[in-house]
Design brief:
heterodimer, A: 148 residues, mainly beta, five-stranded antiparallel sheet, two-stranded antiparallel ribbon, B: 401 residues, Peroxisomal Thiolase, Chain A, domain 1, 15 helices, 12 strands, globular
Chain lengths: 148, 401
Protein backbone atom coordinates (compact mmCIF):
# COMPACT_ATOMS: atom_id res chain seq x y z
CA UNK A 1 0.00 0.00 0.00
CA UNK A 2 1.41 3.37 -0.95
CA UNK A 3 1.72 6.15 1.58
CA UNK A 4 -1.01 8.80 1.61
CA UNK A 5 -0.12 11.84 -0.47
CA UNK A 6 0.81 15.26 0.94
CA UNK A 7 -0.70 16.97 2.88
CA UNK A 8 -2.08 13.78 4.44
CA UNK A 9 0.24 12.31 7.06
CA UNK A 10 1.94 8.95 6.53
CA UNK A 11 1.19 6.52 9.40
CA UNK A 12 4.08 4.41 8.18
CA UNK A 13 6.65 7.10 8.81
CA UNK A 14 8.94 5.64 11.51
CA UNK A 15 9.39 8.65 13.79
CA UNK A 16 5.85 10.05 13.89
CA UNK A 17 3.67 7.21 12.60
CA UNK A 18 2.75 6.04 16.11
CA UNK A 19 0.63 9.14 16.55
CA UNK A 20 -1.46 8.30 13.50
CA UNK A 21 -1.64 4.58 14.24
CA UNK A 22 -3.08 5.45 17.66
CA UNK A 23 -5.51 7.92 16.10
CA UNK A 24 -6.73 5.16 13.79
CA UNK A 25 -7.99 3.44 16.99
CA UNK A 26 -9.42 6.71 18.38
CA UNK A 27 -6.55 7.02 20.82
CA UNK A 28 -4.39 10.03 21.54
CA UNK A 29 -0.82 8.87 22.17
CA UNK A 30 2.56 10.46 22.68
CA UNK A 31 6.04 8.98 23.15
CA UNK A 32 6.81 8.45 26.84
CA UNK A 33 10.38 7.89 27.99
CA UNK A 34 10.57 4.73 30.13
CA UNK A 35 13.71 5.93 31.87
CA UNK A 36 12.73 9.43 32.98
CA UNK A 37 8.93 9.19 32.64
CA UNK A 38 8.69 12.29 30.45
CA UNK A 39 6.75 12.80 27.26
CA UNK A 40 9.06 13.50 24.33
CA UNK A 41 7.25 15.75 21.87
CA UNK A 42 7.92 16.15 19.01
CA UNK A 43 9.18 12.61 18.62
CA UNK A 44 12.91 12.11 18.50
CA UNK A 45 14.91 8.90 18.24
CA UNK A 46 16.17 9.44 21.78
CA UNK A 47 14.73 11.23 24.79
CA UNK A 48 16.16 14.77 24.83
CA UNK A 49 15.96 14.70 28.63
CA UNK A 50 18.02 11.62 29.44
CA UNK A 51 19.19 10.22 26.09
CA UNK A 52 17.22 7.03 26.62
CA UNK A 53 15.91 5.12 23.62
CA UNK A 54 13.02 3.40 25.40
CA UNK A 55 10.26 5.62 24.07
CA UNK A 56 6.81 4.05 24.03
CA UNK A 57 3.68 5.46 22.41
CA UNK A 58 1.42 5.92 25.42
CA UNK A 59 -2.31 6.71 25.26
CA UNK A 60 -3.68 9.52 27.39
CA UNK A 61 -7.13 10.96 28.04
CA UNK A 62 -7.87 13.01 24.91
CA UNK A 63 -8.71 16.19 26.78
CA UNK A 64 -6.92 19.42 27.35
CA UNK A 65 -6.87 23.20 27.20
CA UNK A 66 -6.79 25.64 24.30
CA UNK A 67 -3.36 27.31 24.32
CA UNK A 68 -3.78 29.50 21.24
CA UNK A 69 -5.28 29.43 17.75
CA UNK A 70 -5.66 31.15 14.42
CA UNK A 71 -8.70 31.33 12.17
CA UNK A 72 -7.08 30.61 8.82
CA UNK A 73 -8.77 32.31 5.88
CA UNK A 74 -6.12 32.04 3.20
CA UNK A 75 -5.42 28.64 1.63
CA UNK A 76 -1.64 28.53 1.80
CA UNK A 77 -1.73 25.12 0.11
CA UNK A 78 -4.18 24.25 -2.71
CA UNK A 79 -5.43 21.27 -0.67
CA UNK A 80 -6.97 23.66 1.87
CA UNK A 81 -8.81 25.80 -0.68
CA UNK A 82 -12.18 24.17 0.03
CA UNK A 83 -11.62 24.02 3.80
CA UNK A 84 -10.99 27.68 4.68
CA UNK A 85 -11.86 29.27 6.95
CA UNK A 86 -10.85 26.78 9.61
CA UNK A 87 -9.38 27.04 13.10
CA UNK A 88 -5.80 25.80 13.46
CA UNK A 89 -5.03 25.42 17.13
CA UNK A 90 -2.42 24.52 19.69
CA UNK A 91 -3.70 22.65 22.75
CA UNK A 92 -2.06 21.38 25.90
CA UNK A 93 -3.01 17.88 26.98
CA UNK A 94 -4.01 17.12 30.59
CA UNK A 95 -2.39 13.70 30.73
CA UNK A 96 0.79 14.59 28.86
CA UNK A 97 2.63 17.38 30.67
CA UNK A 98 4.85 19.45 28.37
CA UNK A 99 3.08 18.39 25.18
CA UNK A 100 1.68 21.05 22.90
CA UNK A 101 -0.43 19.46 20.21
CA UNK A 102 -1.16 21.15 16.91
CA UNK A 103 -4.69 20.29 15.82
CA UNK A 104 -7.87 21.58 14.24
CA UNK A 105 -10.67 23.03 16.34
CA UNK A 106 -14.21 22.20 15.22
CA UNK A 107 -17.77 22.73 16.40
CA UNK A 108 -16.93 26.15 17.85
CA UNK A 109 -17.72 29.65 16.74
CA UNK A 110 -14.46 31.60 16.45
CA UNK A 111 -15.97 34.44 18.44
CA UNK A 112 -16.47 32.03 21.36
CA UNK A 113 -12.86 30.86 21.50
CA UNK A 114 -10.69 31.79 24.45
CA UNK A 115 -7.29 30.77 25.70
CA UNK A 116 -7.83 28.32 28.53
CA UNK A 117 -11.04 26.83 27.12
CA UNK A 118 -11.50 23.14 27.87
CA UNK A 119 -11.35 20.98 24.76
CA UNK A 120 -11.76 17.29 23.97
CA UNK A 121 -10.72 15.24 20.94
CA UNK A 122 -13.15 14.05 18.33
CA UNK A 123 -11.61 11.57 15.92
CA UNK A 124 -12.57 12.28 12.35
CA UNK A 125 -11.39 11.20 8.91
CA UNK A 126 -8.95 13.77 7.55
CA UNK A 127 -9.52 14.20 3.81
CA UNK A 128 -8.46 16.54 1.06
CA UNK A 129 -10.22 16.87 -2.26
CA UNK A 130 -6.83 17.13 -3.98
CA UNK A 131 -5.51 13.72 -2.94
CA UNK A 132 -6.91 10.22 -2.58
CA UNK A 133 -7.47 8.50 0.74
CA UNK A 134 -8.06 9.56 4.31
CA UNK A 135 -6.33 9.31 7.67
CA UNK A 136 -8.18 9.32 11.00
CA UNK A 137 -7.13 12.37 13.00
CA UNK A 138 -7.80 13.91 16.41
CA UNK A 139 -9.59 17.19 15.91
CA UNK A 140 -10.67 19.00 19.06
CA UNK A 141 -13.88 20.73 20.09
CA UNK A 142 -15.16 22.52 23.17
CA UNK A 143 -15.53 19.92 25.88
CA UNK A 144 -19.21 18.94 25.88
CA UNK A 145 -18.90 17.56 29.41
CA UNK A 146 -18.35 21.02 30.76
CA UNK A 147 -21.48 23.10 30.50
CA UNK A 148 -20.89 26.65 31.71
CA UNK B 1 4.96 32.98 30.85
CA UNK B 2 8.53 31.85 31.19
CA UNK B 3 10.13 34.26 33.58
CA UNK B 4 13.04 31.90 34.05
CA UNK B 5 15.46 31.84 31.15
CA UNK B 6 16.27 28.15 31.18
CA UNK B 7 15.14 27.54 27.60
CA UNK B 8 18.17 28.90 25.81
CA UNK B 9 21.45 30.70 26.13
CA UNK B 10 23.78 33.36 24.81
CA UNK B 11 26.49 31.78 22.69
CA UNK B 12 29.98 32.50 24.03
CA UNK B 13 31.19 34.46 21.02
CA UNK B 14 34.17 36.26 22.52
CA UNK B 15 35.18 39.75 21.49
CA UNK B 16 35.68 41.51 18.20
CA UNK B 17 39.46 40.98 17.98
CA UNK B 18 40.99 44.08 16.41
CA UNK B 19 37.60 45.50 15.49
CA UNK B 20 35.57 45.76 12.34
CA UNK B 21 33.84 48.57 10.47
CA UNK B 22 31.24 48.61 7.70
CA UNK B 23 32.62 50.76 4.91
CA UNK B 24 30.39 50.06 1.94
CA UNK B 25 26.73 49.21 1.41
CA UNK B 26 24.78 48.26 -1.70
CA UNK B 27 21.47 46.85 -2.79
CA UNK B 28 20.04 45.36 -5.96
CA UNK B 29 16.60 46.66 -6.90
CA UNK B 30 13.91 45.21 -4.63
CA UNK B 31 10.89 44.15 -6.61
CA UNK B 32 8.01 41.79 -7.16
CA UNK B 33 8.70 38.78 -9.39
CA UNK B 34 11.49 39.92 -11.68
CA UNK B 35 12.89 36.80 -13.32
CA UNK B 36 16.33 37.64 -11.94
CA UNK B 37 18.45 34.97 -10.23
CA UNK B 38 19.78 35.37 -6.68
CA UNK B 39 23.36 35.21 -8.00
CA UNK B 40 22.71 38.00 -10.46
CA UNK B 41 21.15 40.21 -7.78
CA UNK B 42 23.81 39.43 -5.17
CA UNK B 43 26.45 40.41 -7.71
CA UNK B 44 24.64 43.67 -8.39
CA UNK B 45 24.41 44.49 -4.69
CA UNK B 46 28.07 43.55 -4.20
CA UNK B 47 29.18 45.81 -7.04
CA UNK B 48 27.23 48.68 -5.49
CA UNK B 49 28.68 48.04 -2.01
CA UNK B 50 32.24 47.84 -3.31
CA UNK B 51 31.82 51.08 -5.27
CA UNK B 52 30.20 52.74 -2.26
CA UNK B 53 33.31 51.91 -0.23
CA UNK B 54 35.50 53.48 -2.90
CA UNK B 55 37.10 50.10 -3.56
CA UNK B 56 37.36 47.89 -6.63
CA UNK B 57 36.41 44.19 -6.84
CA UNK B 58 40.13 43.36 -6.80
CA UNK B 59 40.36 44.81 -3.27
CA UNK B 60 37.87 42.23 -1.95
CA UNK B 61 39.75 39.23 -0.58
CA UNK B 62 37.04 37.74 1.60
CA UNK B 63 33.43 36.75 0.90
CA UNK B 64 30.70 35.56 3.25
CA UNK B 65 27.48 33.85 2.17
CA UNK B 66 25.07 31.34 3.64
CA UNK B 67 25.18 27.74 2.36
CA UNK B 68 21.51 26.95 3.06
CA UNK B 69 20.14 29.32 0.42
CA UNK B 70 20.63 28.66 -3.31
CA UNK B 71 22.49 31.00 -5.63
CA UNK B 72 24.42 33.05 -3.09
CA UNK B 73 27.64 34.90 -3.93
CA UNK B 74 30.13 32.29 -2.75
CA UNK B 75 33.78 32.56 -3.79
CA UNK B 76 33.31 30.89 -7.17
CA UNK B 77 30.31 33.06 -8.01
CA UNK B 78 32.25 36.15 -6.89
CA UNK B 79 35.17 35.23 -9.15
CA UNK B 80 32.84 34.53 -12.05
CA UNK B 81 31.05 37.83 -11.62
CA UNK B 82 34.06 40.08 -11.13
CA UNK B 83 36.81 38.15 -12.92
CA UNK B 84 39.00 38.28 -9.83
CA UNK B 85 41.85 35.80 -9.69
CA UNK B 86 43.48 36.45 -6.30
CA UNK B 87 43.02 34.35 -3.17
CA UNK B 88 39.62 34.68 -1.51
CA UNK B 89 38.92 33.91 2.14
CA UNK B 90 35.47 32.35 2.25
CA UNK B 91 33.08 31.93 5.17
CA UNK B 92 29.63 30.27 5.44
CA UNK B 93 28.81 32.46 8.47
CA UNK B 94 27.32 35.23 6.34
CA UNK B 95 24.03 36.11 4.69
CA UNK B 96 20.77 37.49 6.12
CA UNK B 97 18.57 36.64 9.13
CA UNK B 98 20.72 36.18 12.25
CA UNK B 99 23.85 36.05 10.10
CA UNK B 100 23.39 39.61 8.87
CA UNK B 101 24.07 40.47 12.51
CA UNK B 102 26.82 37.98 13.32
CA UNK B 103 28.83 38.08 10.07
CA UNK B 104 30.86 41.07 11.36
CA UNK B 105 31.98 38.98 14.33
CA UNK B 106 33.47 36.28 12.10
CA UNK B 107 34.86 38.98 9.80
CA UNK B 108 36.65 40.67 12.71
CA UNK B 109 38.51 37.43 13.43
CA UNK B 110 39.54 37.05 9.79
CA UNK B 111 40.68 40.67 9.59
CA UNK B 112 42.71 40.28 12.79
CA UNK B 113 44.48 37.09 11.77
CA UNK B 114 45.33 38.38 8.32
CA UNK B 115 43.00 36.06 6.40
CA UNK B 116 41.48 39.01 4.57
CA UNK B 117 41.60 42.79 4.37
CA UNK B 118 38.23 43.65 2.81
CA UNK B 119 35.33 41.26 3.35
CA UNK B 120 32.00 41.25 1.55
CA UNK B 121 28.81 39.84 3.09
CA UNK B 122 25.83 39.48 0.78
CA UNK B 123 22.42 37.88 0.57
CA UNK B 124 19.85 37.55 -2.19
CA UNK B 125 16.44 35.92 -2.67
CA UNK B 126 14.24 35.41 -5.72
CA UNK B 127 11.24 34.11 -3.82
CA UNK B 128 8.79 36.36 -5.63
CA UNK B 129 9.92 34.87 -8.93
CA UNK B 130 9.95 31.35 -7.51
CA UNK B 131 6.50 31.70 -6.02
CA UNK B 132 5.03 33.04 -9.25
CA UNK B 133 6.50 30.08 -11.13
CA UNK B 134 5.43 27.65 -8.34
CA UNK B 135 9.04 26.53 -7.85
CA UNK B 136 9.45 27.43 -4.20
CA UNK B 137 9.11 29.99 -1.48
CA UNK B 138 9.68 30.55 2.19
CA UNK B 139 7.33 27.75 3.31
CA UNK B 140 8.96 25.06 1.19
CA UNK B 141 11.71 23.97 3.58
CA UNK B 142 9.15 23.83 6.39
CA UNK B 143 6.85 21.50 4.43
CA UNK B 144 9.80 19.16 3.92
CA UNK B 145 10.73 18.88 7.58
CA UNK B 146 9.32 15.54 8.67
CA UNK B 147 7.83 16.57 12.01
CA UNK B 148 6.07 19.58 10.46
CA UNK B 149 4.94 17.62 7.42
CA UNK B 150 3.51 14.86 9.62
CA UNK B 151 2.22 16.71 12.69
CA UNK B 152 1.46 20.30 11.69
CA UNK B 153 0.71 20.56 7.96
CA UNK B 154 -2.14 17.97 8.00
CA UNK B 155 -4.05 20.17 10.46
CA UNK B 156 -3.41 23.30 8.41
CA UNK B 157 -1.00 24.79 10.96
CA UNK B 158 1.28 25.94 8.16
CA UNK B 159 3.15 27.98 7.03
CA UNK B 160 4.82 30.86 8.87
CA UNK B 161 1.82 33.28 8.90
CA UNK B 162 -0.21 30.67 10.77
CA UNK B 163 2.55 30.01 13.32
CA UNK B 164 2.97 33.69 14.06
CA UNK B 165 -0.76 34.43 14.07
CA UNK B 166 -1.03 31.81 16.83
CA UNK B 167 1.86 33.46 18.68
CA UNK B 168 0.19 36.86 18.26
CA UNK B 169 -3.10 35.52 19.65
CA UNK B 170 -1.26 34.19 22.69
CA UNK B 171 0.59 37.52 23.12
CA UNK B 172 -2.79 39.27 23.04
CA UNK B 173 -4.06 36.92 25.75
CA UNK B 174 -1.00 37.25 27.99
CA UNK B 175 -0.40 40.97 27.69
CA UNK B 176 -3.53 42.59 26.31
CA UNK B 177 -1.92 43.44 22.97
CA UNK B 178 -4.57 44.61 20.48
CA UNK B 179 -5.19 44.34 16.77
CA UNK B 180 -4.86 48.13 16.56
CA UNK B 181 -1.40 47.91 18.12
CA UNK B 182 -0.34 45.28 15.59
CA UNK B 183 -1.76 47.58 12.94
CA UNK B 184 0.24 50.51 14.22
CA UNK B 185 3.43 48.55 13.52
CA UNK B 186 2.30 47.94 9.93
CA UNK B 187 1.27 51.57 9.48
CA UNK B 188 4.44 53.13 10.92
CA UNK B 189 6.63 50.72 9.00
CA UNK B 190 4.76 51.54 5.79
CA UNK B 191 5.22 55.26 6.42
CA UNK B 192 8.96 54.67 6.61
CA UNK B 193 8.84 52.74 3.33
CA UNK B 194 7.00 55.64 1.73
CA UNK B 195 10.05 57.79 2.56
CA UNK B 196 12.60 55.25 1.31
CA UNK B 197 13.33 55.23 -2.44
CA UNK B 198 14.36 51.56 -2.60
CA UNK B 199 11.26 50.23 -0.81
CA UNK B 200 8.91 47.92 -2.72
CA UNK B 201 5.95 49.68 -1.05
CA UNK B 202 7.33 53.20 -1.56
CA UNK B 203 4.21 54.37 -3.38
CA UNK B 204 1.59 52.46 -1.42
CA UNK B 205 0.06 54.35 1.52
CA UNK B 206 -1.46 52.63 4.52
CA UNK B 207 -3.32 54.10 7.45
CA UNK B 208 -4.94 52.35 10.38
CA UNK B 209 -8.40 52.56 8.82
CA UNK B 210 -7.15 50.81 5.65
CA UNK B 211 -5.47 48.22 7.82
CA UNK B 212 -8.57 47.47 9.87
CA UNK B 213 -10.72 47.32 6.74
CA UNK B 214 -8.53 44.76 5.00
CA UNK B 215 -9.57 41.11 5.15
CA UNK B 216 -7.94 38.63 7.51
CA UNK B 217 -5.35 36.17 6.21
CA UNK B 218 -4.85 34.13 9.38
CA UNK B 219 -6.47 35.87 12.34
CA UNK B 220 -5.43 38.06 13.98
CA UNK B 221 -3.27 38.83 10.92
CA UNK B 222 -4.21 40.74 7.86
CA UNK B 223 -1.98 40.87 4.79
CA UNK B 224 -0.22 43.95 6.16
CA UNK B 225 0.91 42.04 9.26
CA UNK B 226 2.95 39.77 7.01
CA UNK B 227 6.24 40.37 5.24
CA UNK B 228 6.42 41.02 1.56
CA UNK B 229 7.61 38.30 -0.76
CA UNK B 230 10.07 40.08 -3.02
CA UNK B 231 13.17 39.60 -5.17
CA UNK B 232 16.29 41.49 -4.23
CA UNK B 233 19.71 41.56 -2.62
CA UNK B 234 21.89 43.60 -0.32
CA UNK B 235 25.56 43.54 0.59
CA UNK B 236 28.04 45.25 2.83
CA UNK B 237 31.83 45.54 2.88
CA UNK B 238 33.83 45.27 6.11
CA UNK B 239 37.40 46.14 7.01
CA UNK B 240 39.38 47.16 10.08
CA UNK B 241 38.55 50.50 11.73
CA UNK B 242 42.07 51.70 10.86
CA UNK B 243 41.70 51.03 7.14
CA UNK B 244 38.15 52.37 7.28
CA UNK B 245 39.48 55.82 8.15
CA UNK B 246 41.34 55.91 4.83
CA UNK B 247 38.17 55.19 2.86
CA UNK B 248 35.66 57.76 1.80
CA UNK B 249 32.52 56.99 3.81
CA UNK B 250 31.91 58.09 7.40
CA UNK B 251 33.17 55.22 9.55
CA UNK B 252 30.54 52.93 11.04
CA UNK B 253 32.12 50.63 13.61
CA UNK B 254 30.74 47.40 15.01
CA UNK B 255 30.53 47.89 18.77
CA UNK B 256 28.89 44.65 19.87
CA UNK B 257 27.53 41.34 18.64
CA UNK B 258 25.36 38.81 20.46
CA UNK B 259 23.86 35.46 19.46
CA UNK B 260 21.12 33.67 21.38
CA UNK B 261 19.85 30.12 20.88
CA UNK B 262 16.69 28.38 22.04
CA UNK B 263 17.36 24.78 22.92
CA UNK B 264 14.02 23.68 21.51
CA UNK B 265 14.93 24.17 17.87
CA UNK B 266 12.79 25.17 14.93
CA UNK B 267 9.31 24.14 16.03
CA UNK B 268 7.37 27.23 16.98
CA UNK B 269 4.55 25.19 18.55
CA UNK B 270 6.99 23.68 21.03
CA UNK B 271 8.83 26.83 22.12
CA UNK B 272 8.44 26.89 25.91
CA UNK B 273 8.67 30.67 25.82
CA UNK B 274 5.96 30.93 23.18
CA UNK B 275 5.80 34.73 23.05
CA UNK B 276 9.50 35.43 23.63
CA UNK B 277 12.43 35.29 21.17
CA UNK B 278 16.04 34.25 21.86
CA UNK B 279 16.76 37.98 21.64
CA UNK B 280 16.56 37.90 25.45
CA UNK B 281 19.95 36.17 25.27
CA UNK B 282 21.49 37.93 22.26
CA UNK B 283 20.56 41.52 23.11
CA UNK B 284 22.12 41.78 26.58
CA UNK B 285 25.30 40.11 25.31
CA UNK B 286 25.67 42.59 22.45
CA UNK B 287 24.87 45.57 24.67
CA UNK B 288 27.42 44.44 27.25
CA UNK B 289 30.09 44.05 24.57
CA UNK B 290 29.32 47.56 23.31
CA UNK B 291 29.08 49.03 26.80
CA UNK B 292 25.66 50.52 26.12
CA UNK B 293 22.10 50.23 27.38
CA UNK B 294 18.89 50.22 25.34
CA UNK B 295 18.32 53.88 26.26
CA UNK B 296 21.51 54.79 24.37
CA UNK B 297 20.19 53.42 21.07
CA UNK B 298 19.12 56.00 18.48
CA UNK B 299 17.70 53.73 15.79
CA UNK B 300 16.60 50.11 15.73
CA UNK B 301 16.02 47.61 12.92
CA UNK B 302 14.47 44.28 13.83
CA UNK B 303 13.82 41.28 11.64
CA UNK B 304 10.09 41.62 11.10
CA UNK B 305 8.49 38.76 9.19
CA UNK B 306 5.28 39.66 11.06
CA UNK B 307 4.17 42.65 13.11
CA UNK B 308 4.17 40.56 16.28
CA UNK B 309 7.88 39.80 15.83
CA UNK B 310 8.66 43.52 15.84
CA UNK B 311 6.84 43.82 19.16
CA UNK B 312 8.47 40.72 20.67
CA UNK B 313 11.97 41.82 19.66
CA UNK B 314 11.49 45.34 21.04
CA UNK B 315 10.48 43.76 24.34
CA UNK B 316 13.17 41.10 24.35
CA UNK B 317 15.92 43.62 23.55
CA UNK B 318 14.88 45.48 26.67
CA UNK B 319 13.45 48.65 25.13
CA UNK B 320 10.40 48.15 27.35
CA UNK B 321 9.08 45.55 29.73
CA UNK B 322 7.71 42.23 28.46
CA UNK B 323 4.25 42.79 27.05
CA UNK B 324 4.64 46.58 26.82
CA UNK B 325 5.63 46.90 23.16
CA UNK B 326 2.01 46.93 21.98
CA UNK B 327 1.08 50.15 23.80
CA UNK B 328 4.48 51.59 22.85
CA UNK B 329 3.89 50.95 19.14
CA UNK B 330 0.31 52.14 19.47
CA UNK B 331 1.56 55.47 20.84
CA UNK B 332 3.52 56.06 17.62
CA UNK B 333 6.90 55.69 19.32
CA UNK B 334 8.35 53.56 16.50
CA UNK B 335 8.23 56.42 13.98
CA UNK B 336 11.51 57.89 12.77
CA UNK B 337 10.56 61.38 13.91
CA UNK B 338 8.69 60.68 17.17
CA UNK B 339 11.64 60.82 19.55
CA UNK B 340 10.88 57.32 20.79
CA UNK B 341 12.45 54.13 19.46
CA UNK B 342 12.66 54.63 15.69
CA UNK B 343 12.23 51.11 14.31
CA UNK B 344 12.62 49.71 10.80
CA UNK B 345 13.06 53.13 9.27
CA UNK B 346 13.36 51.71 5.73
CA UNK B 347 10.13 49.76 5.96
CA UNK B 348 11.46 46.41 7.13
CA UNK B 349 10.44 43.06 5.73
CA UNK B 350 6.86 44.28 5.96
CA UNK B 351 7.18 47.13 3.46
CA UNK B 352 10.75 47.52 2.17
CA UNK B 353 11.90 44.10 0.95
CA UNK B 354 12.09 40.46 1.94
CA UNK B 355 15.87 40.09 1.82
CA UNK B 356 15.78 38.57 5.27
CA UNK B 357 17.31 41.38 7.24
CA UNK B 358 20.48 42.27 5.39
CA UNK B 359 18.78 45.45 4.10
CA UNK B 360 18.04 46.26 7.74
CA UNK B 361 21.80 46.48 8.28
CA UNK B 362 22.45 48.59 5.18
CA UNK B 363 19.65 50.93 6.33
CA UNK B 364 21.27 51.33 9.74
CA UNK B 365 24.55 52.26 8.08
CA UNK B 366 22.66 54.87 6.01
CA UNK B 367 21.12 56.19 9.24
CA UNK B 368 24.51 56.52 10.92
CA UNK B 369 25.88 58.30 7.85
CA UNK B 370 22.88 60.65 7.81
CA UNK B 371 21.77 59.37 4.38
CA UNK B 372 18.47 57.62 5.14
CA UNK B 373 15.10 58.47 3.62
CA UNK B 374 13.34 58.47 7.00
CA UNK B 375 16.38 59.92 8.73
CA UNK B 376 16.58 59.92 12.52
CA UNK B 377 18.12 63.17 13.76
CA UNK B 378 21.83 62.79 14.68
CA UNK B 379 21.79 59.00 14.96
CA UNK B 380 25.00 57.68 16.52
CA UNK B 381 24.13 54.22 17.82
CA UNK B 382 22.09 51.69 15.88
CA UNK B 383 20.99 48.14 16.66
CA UNK B 384 19.94 45.29 14.38
CA UNK B 385 17.92 42.42 15.86
CA UNK B 386 18.22 39.32 13.68
CA UNK B 387 15.94 36.30 14.04
CA UNK B 388 15.43 32.83 12.64
CA UNK B 389 13.09 31.38 15.27
CA UNK B 390 15.48 29.14 17.20
CA UNK B 391 18.16 31.84 17.10
CA UNK B 392 18.40 35.60 17.41
CA UNK B 393 21.32 37.96 16.95
CA UNK B 394 21.98 41.53 18.01
CA UNK B 395 24.41 43.84 16.24
CA UNK B 396 25.38 47.21 17.72
CA UNK B 397 26.74 49.77 15.23
CA UNK B 398 28.30 53.08 16.20
CA UNK B 399 29.23 56.08 14.12
CA UNK B 400 32.90 56.79 14.81
CA UNK B 401 33.50 60.27 16.19
Amino acid sequence: MTAPAFPLPDPGEPLTGGFWKAAARDRLAFPLCGACDRFCWYPEPRCPGCGGSGLTWTSVEPAGTLFSWSVVHHAFLPAFADQVPFVAAVVTIDGAPGVRLVTRLIDARPSDLAVGARVRARFVPLRFSTVAGEVRAPFFRPDPRRIP
Amino acid sequence: MNRTLDWGRAEPLGGLAGGVAIVGIGEAAHSRASGRTPTEMAGEAAAAAIADAGLTPADIDGVMAHPAFPGQLHADAFRARFGSTGPLWESPLGGGMVWAGTAPHAAARALADGSARHILNSFAVAWATQRSSMTGGPGQSHAQKITKRQLEVPFGWFPQPVYFATIARRHMHEFGTTVEQLGSVAVTTRRHANLTPSAVMRDRRLDLRDYLASPPVAEPFRKEDCSLISDGAAAYVMTTPERARDLRAPVVEVAGVGLGTSRTGGHWAQQPAFTTTPQVFAGPAAFAMAGIRPVDVDVLAVYDPFTIVTLMQIEDLGFCGKGEAGPLAGSGALAHDAGGIPTNTHGGLLSHSYVLGIAHVTELVRQLRGQAGAQVASAEIAVYGGYTGPQASALVLRRAR
